[in-house]
Design goal:
- It is a single chain.
- By secondary structure, this protein is of the alpha/beta class.
- It folds into three domains: 3-203; 208-298, Translation factors (Elongation Factor Tu (Ef-tu), domain 3, Beta Barrel); 311-433, Nucleotide-binding domain of ferredoxin-NADP reductase (FNR) module (Rossmann fold), CATH 3.40.50.80.
- It has helices at residues 3-26, 36-58, 63-66, 71-99, 114-134, 143-168, 175-204, 320-333, 354-363, 388-394, 410-422, and strands spanning 208-216, 220-227, 240-245, 255-258, 269-274, 291-298, 311-316, 339-345, 366-372, 382-383, 403-407, 430-433.
- A six-stranded antiparallel β-sheet has the order 4-3-6-1-2-5, with no helix packed on it.
- Strand 1 and strand 2 (220-227) form a beta hairpin.
- The two termini are 32 Å apart.
Amino acid sequence: MSLAVRGAFWIGVYVAVTVVPLVFAVLGAIPPPGGFLVDLSVALGFIGLSMMGLQFALVARFQNMVAPFGEDAVVRFHRQIAWVATAFILAHPLLLLVQDASVLELFNPATAPWRARFAVLSTVCLLAIMATSVWRRRLRMRYEVWHGLHAVLAVASVLFALAHIVLVGRYVDTAWKQALWTVMTAAFVGLIVWVRVVRPVRRLRRPWEITRVDAERGATTTITLRPVGHDGFGFAPGQFGWISVGRSPFALTQHPFSFSSSAEADGSVQMSIKALGDFTGTVAELRPGTRAYLDGPHGVFTPDRNEGPGFVLIAGGVGIGPVISMLRTFADRGDRRPCVLFYASRTLEDTTFLEEVCALEERLDLTLVLVLEDPPQDWTGERGRVDGALLRRWLPERHRRMQFFICGPPPMLDAMESALAGAGVPAAQVHTERFVFV
């Protein structure tokens, strides 16, 4: 089955599961109509709840599901569709208020019945999720704290909503409908058990150990990990894994980083991590012998999946990680297809792996274009930032047939996608990696 067909299949599954609760509600004996606004509010509530339940599946790292899209694209959809689900859920009580102002009494926790209290609790949890996600940095909330709070609030929100539906009983008042809702609830609970119990148990049986911790240019640290008691796994250049270090695999938080080692290397893997705060700021303090757990490989940002006559690689800052993996892999494979690397860095001292990239120019058909934002006084190379004009200077017409891989800060990715589109490069040949999971 092609990736396009698989992608269409999973989109169909998502749409079908989203509307299933609504179908359940209207099948069989339909309750007396409460008016258009009431029926619309119930429909939106059912769909919003289903979408919230599916949010857990979107971030469960099911490789078959994310393969046609890429995990970063699925996570972006997870974040964006959360606004739609929240709007549907909030529309449910608001439409009821428009229909009948006396519904406002149900928001009083002291006098409201439990069916209303559960609805309010679910909504409060949902709003807390959105607020802490949008304003995490303003609240100065560490990623690990946010992640744990996010998971707890999400589970609570869905469970409170299910309790609300059961106690209302208006659309689940027959045995077969109750059975169907039981199955859906069991599926939701099963998904949580799979993510929080089964998968950590599997990782517990396949530990890794840090064998080396090497300081690199640009406040970057490379850690080398070897599998303990198992053969590890293979990966494609450009892919990434989720890592937890010095803690149980049952811990709520893992961190995603690209593999920087060659995909042709046996056994051990490397990750090169730039100190940007939170966990990344502690990586340089790790010591050999530290136990770690890896979940991978993940991602579709790889030339192995997107073959072409050559490659244009655009890296900014920490984005050099997956790119150096590609170059190392090309060298180990003896791959002589032409490559052009645009490497943007603030200063010369910040250019991680610069010496190795220069050495790889001798082993590969590689052209390095180093772009410095704050170059030394005697610098004769490119200055400023990578933009459309710079790309046009270095890339003749024939390069438009090549595959483009871009990894760096989000503003850079946006600018490059726009510049390449303006240069006539087909979107299917432009690949990006966005590690924005909050």
